[in-house]
Design brief:
single chain, about 230 residues, alpha/beta, Leucine-rich repeat, LRR (right-handed beta-alpha superhelix), two-stranded antiparallel ribbon
């Protein structure tokens, strides 16, 4: 399947869909899953009927065989970073793959311009890296009941609201560097009070001053004039 690329710098290049191979999804640690071209419905709405006619008609059997070959259900460790998801149909296909990762334990989704994965559930995920995305809240993260190591550096999380949702998970280390919430007053104390099982925050182990007793916390609200 050959399709012209839309951007001028690539006008002499074409997408190439390799059909005859026996590589399965769980055999790849860093696959490129970005959709090579628009779906048939997308092409129709764009008025590109000529391109649509050139496409090979894919039967239901071929679609089912492709789905089995992807085999995302058996992936235990997967890196889906830097996918360059520029269009809605690419994002939707990406989420379709995430929904099939029922056995993944380590997952990297760095720099994918992701904004909301709250509809995704990763039941076995222990390590998740979503650095350099566009999350603004902990509520937008996927459901990760077994998470131990979570990295959220360089997102746009404004407050710590919703962080207590991880209170009943085995979360041990959390990275929130370069998020606006990092500048909140008593940032480290608030995080550790919300997550009693947390051992490391932003690469720094839990310190005695990170778990101040109630009587000491009172003085944070007082203004002392010398």
């Amino acid at each position: 399947l050959f399709l012209k690329l839309p951007s001028d710098p690539f006008k002499y290049l074409c997408w190439c869909d390799i059909e005859d191979h026996d590589v399965r999804g769980n055999q790849l640690h860093c696959p490129r899953v970005r959709e090579a071209g628009p779906s048939e419905e997308e092409l129709f709405f764009r008025g590109e009927e000529q391109t649509l006619k050139k496409r090979k008609q894919v039967t239901d059997t071929e679609k089912w065989q492709k789905k089995l070959q992807e085999n995302w259900e058996n992936c235990a460790e997967l890196n889906l970073s830097f996918q360059d998801l520029g269009d809605l149909y690419q994002v939707e296909n990406f989420k379709r793959i995430l929904q099939r990762l029922i056995r993944v334990e380590k997952l990297w989704l760095v720099d994918n311009s992701l904004t909301d994965l709250s509809a995704i559930r990763l039941p076995r995920c222990r390590e998740l890296n979503v650095n350099k995305n566009h999350f603004t809240s902990f509520k937008q993260l996927p459901k990760i009941p077994r998470i131990q190591h979570l990295s959220l550096a360089e997102n746009n999380i404004m407050t710590l609201s919703g962080i207590s949702d991880f209170r009943h998970t085995p979360l041990e280390s959390l990275i929130l560097k370069r998020n606006p919430c990092e500048f909140q007053e008593r940032y480290r104390q608030l995080v550790f009070s919300s997550l009693p099982n947390l051992k490391t925050l932003d690469g720094i182990p839990k310190l005695p001053e990170d778990c101040s007793p109630p009587e000491i916390r009172f003085f944070f609200k007082m203004c002392t004039i010398l």
